[in-house]
Design brief:
- The chain is 15% helix and 29% strand.
- It is α+β, with helices and mostly antiparallel strands and 255 residues long.
- It folds into two domains: 57 residues, no CATH class; 197 residues, no CATH class.
- A four-stranded mixed beta sheet has the order 6-7-8-9, with helices on both faces. Strands 10, 11, 14 and 15 form a four-stranded antiparallel beta sheet that branches.
- A hairpin with a 5-residue loop joins strand 1 and strand 2.
- The two termini are 41 Å apart.
């Protein structure tokens, strides 16, 4: 986690904190946490073992770097962004980054791999209840490159994001830039199709997808659109609850 409570009861960012301000406590469980601030890794706070609190667990260095970069850029954006806060407490949810723009409330959730679908859906429902537009943001990885020789296998939560954002998933690249990715259909050879008298010699793969990229998009310049997402897929493998999403303005780039 990138924030904690100082000895004077004020919230502080790890990048602004000094060990002289200790002790620091976790905003969630109120137990002491350690400031880890060096020359290589992103400054952050960590629970002392044994760890029982789930707040901040599962965050990688890449995850912390993403959160800090987005927050710093939003703070530097000027008057167009207000009420910007890292890990803001909102009662039932605590988004990685919260800010307001053009009378919209926006929460950015940097996706981590150990977050369950139940928690993703729950948080999305809570943001909707609070009238907050949510942007779920995984981090771009090499297997998503369009020139990658192997087929891409999206996780269940990536499939969920793909449905929620109308056929695109936003992957953080750097600063406030994201790569919108559409998962294209993959058709595989149907072995023995002549012998088995199958109507087609190819079939649609349930596992693999081909990532196709939209134009690199800026979270402020290209995302000034809020959409009320109606519920979808109840009773199916993927369920999207009613929610408000922060979505870009570009038209679909796939057939």
């Amino acid at each position: 986690m990138l924030t904690a409570i100082r000895s004077d009861s004020q919230k502080t960012l790890a990048q602004d904190a000094n060990k002289i301000d200790a002790p620091f406590t976790c905003p969630e469980c109120n137990k002491n946490v350690i400031l880890r601030k060096g020359l290589i890794k992103t400054p952050h706070f960590a629970h002392k073992p044994p760890v029982t609190c789930q707040y901040g667990q599962g965050e990688s260095e890449e995850h912390r770097k993403c959160k800090q970069a987005i927050f710093n850029c939003l703070v530097e954006a000027g008057d167009s962004v207000t009420a910007c806060e890292m890990e803001k407490f909102l009662g039932t949810v605590r988004p990685d980054i919260y800010f307001e723009r053009n009378n919209y409330k926006i929460a950015i959730e940097v996706q981590i791999s150990n977050l369950t679908m139940e928690k993703i859906i729950y948080r999305t429902e809570q943001y909707n209840r609070l009238n907050i537009n949510v942007l779920w943001l995984p981090i771009f990885r090499k297997t998503l490159s369009e020139d990658c020789p192997s087929l891409f296998t999206p996780t269940q939560w990536e499939k969920w994001l793909h449905v929620t954002y109308y056929g695109r998933v936003y992957y953080w690249s750097d600063n406030l830039n994201v790569v919108p990715v559409h998962f294209g259909e993959v058709r595989l050879d149907n072995p023995g199709w002549e012998r088995k008298k199958i109507s087609s010699y190819t079939y649609k793969s349930k596992k693999y997808r081909i990532p196709t990229h939209g134009k690199l998009s800026h979270i402020l310049q290209d995302f000034d659109v809020t959409t009320r997402r109606e519920p979808w897929g109840e009773g199916k493998n993927i369920f999207v609850p009613p929610c408000k999403i922060w979505i870009d303005k570009q038209k679909k780039w796939w057939d």
